[in-house]
Each structure stands twice: as C-alpha cells, then as structure tokens.
Amino acid sequence: MRGTLRQSEAERVFSAHRGLLQAVAYRVLGSVTDAEDVVQDAWLRWSRVDAAGVKDAEGYLVRVTTRLAIDRLRSARVRRESYVGPWLPEPMLTAPDVADDVAQADSVSTAMLLVLETLSPVERAVFVLGEVFGYGTAEIARIVGRSDAAVRQIAHRAKHAVHARRRRYDSDPATRRVATERFLAACAGGDLKALMAILAPDVTLVSDGGGFTLAPRKPIHGLERVARAIVVLSRQLPEGSDASVLDVNGGPAIVVYSGRTPVLAVMPHLVDGAIATLHVVSNRHKLTGVTQVTARH
C-alpha cells in the first residue's frame, strides 16, 4: 500500500510539471515527437527515484529533461544532415492566449526555432532556460552541469548569435490573423492576383516535405515565383481536403486536413502587414503536433 501511495504521489508531481517539461523539450529540440519521447524518458527516471526525498522536484525534472533533450538534439543533428530538402521545426497547436504574449509566441515560432538551430545544443538549452523560462545563472548551471562563469559566457554568446540572425516579424495577433485569412481565401480561389497582393516583393517560401511529397527541395524567392508555387501546391492537395486557420506555434497558421489527417501546415510570417516568409510542412511524419483536438502549450 505504501509503495502504491508513493507511486501515486510521484505521478501527481510529475503531472503537475509535465507542461513545463514539454515546453522546455520542444524549444530545445524543435520536434514534437522527440520532445514527447524525452518527457517520457524523464518520467521513467522520475518513477525510479524516491520522490519524497527530492526537495526541488521542478529543478530535478527540468534538469533531467534538459540533459536528455541536449543528448537527443546531438544525435538528431546527425540525422538532419541527410534530410531531403529544407528541414523545418515540427508545427504544434498552441492555445490562443499564447499569441497574446509576444515573448512566448516568439519563443515558439518556427522562425525563432530555426534561429535556435544555429546554436550548439548546450547554447540552445542555456538560451531557452534563461530567455524563455527565466531561470537564473546558478539554476541553469546546475541544470546543464556547467560552472556559473561558463553559463554566463554561453548565454552571452547565444544571445548575441540570436540577435544577429533573427528577423523581426510583425507580432500583432489581429494583423497576422487578417493576413492569414486573406491568404487562405486567395489560395482557395486559386486567385494569383489576390495572392500577390498579400505577399511581400521579396517573399520566400521554404517547404519541408522530407522527400515524401512533391514539395520544392530548395527555397523559392520572389513574389511571382512564390505565388505560382502556392497555386500549384493548392492544386496538389487531396480531393475533399479542408483548410482552417488555427493557432500554431504562437500565431495564426493554416492547417489542411484530409478527413482527420493533417496533410499540410503553413506558417506565414509578416513584415509591415505583408507575408515575407512562408514555412510549409507537408512531411506527414512531422504533423503529429497538429492532430490534437485540444491545444498544447
């Protein structure tokens, strides 16, 4: 009976922190499936310790999750070197209120996750823990197993790299939603002129099909070329598919379903009200995060 009670308490404590662990792992990995695997591994480790003897459950769980995520990211990067075509983060449904928090929305956007891909695994973890979740230097040092001085240097290097490489996009949720809805309407009607009216002159389309779809294997640049590529892409969708504007990665995006199966996710990024970058994921193995009925955080 006592063992059962201890197990029940361990499950309660872990469940209370699961959302945080998932959020940390996803931002470190850029993959819904990898993040879920890491959180499951963290649970297995937690279930084997005496939870009652752990004074700081959050600290312990975040430390285990972060270190597992760093290890997984190292091996994932080796696999990504042979990936077919551009690699994009896995899209994930988010709650509508995430878009109202500019910092949180930015931290989970595909644009930011791609910038984080340029960091080393440890740099990425240090940046995420400090800049997104607000952990202090000493806490981060314990989590990643480095000295305070080393963490300060890593954090400075990571912040400088992110600042230099990121592109600032429009953050107003209402502006983004209106543009996304106009984009969807133009796509649905195959209206090339309407599409070109919502796209920026220097727009870029990056499409991730992983070799499983006919997605372009190189980014496409320029207003007319991108508009025509979108029209072609729209015509290739399964018969009877349905598209909706949903909250994905902290902002409005378009998810196309064939029945209940997601087949495409389109994440637009705006500059001065016009779509400057389009991230399109059609690799079916990377769409598990947009199959959920309830939103994730």
What would your notes on this structure say?
- The chain is α+β, with helices and mostly antiparallel strands and 297 residues long.
- The protein has helices spanning 2-29, 32-47, 57-80, 96-100, 102-108, 110-116, 121-132, 137-144, 148-165, 173-189, 192-198, 223-235, and strands spanning 199-208, 220-221, 242-248, 251-258, 261-271, 274-281.
- Among the domains are: 1-82, Rna Polymerase Sigma Factor, Chain: A, CATH 1.10.1740; 173-290, Nuclear Transport Factor 2, Chain: A (Roll).
- It is built from twelve helices and six strands.
- A six-stranded mixed sheet has the order 2-1-6-5-4-3.
- β3 and β4 (251-258) form a beta hairpin.
- The radius of gyration is 20 Å and the shape is globular.
- The mean pLDDT is 92.
Estimate the global geometry from the Cα principal axes: globular
Helix content: 40-55%
Beta-strand content bin = 15-25%
Strand line-up in the sheet with most strands: 2-1-6-5-4-3
**Number of helical regions:** 12
Radius of gyration (CA) equals: 20 Å
Kindly name the structural category. Answer: alpha+beta
